[in-house]
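Morning run. Coffee first, then this:
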Amino acid sequence: MTSLDLLSPGTRARLVSIGGERAFRCRLMELGLLPGTALRLVRKADLGGVLELEVRGCRLTVRHLEARSLAVVPLEG
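And here it is:
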């Protein structure tokens, strides 16, 4: 298990847990990011410090600091 911010672009993973403040956790769950959800890290934007994710066919961004509170397990293939 690792945090989302440590993955390389293109890596597929499964979300294990969401940490951080309650409002942050609720917002991610409203967007469909629930424990057990498969996702793919599309890219990391150094300028602005955001990560672009693909979740359930949609793209969303999270801040680098917020990505540290998302525990994931990388998927094979």
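The chain has one domain: 2-74. Good start to the day.
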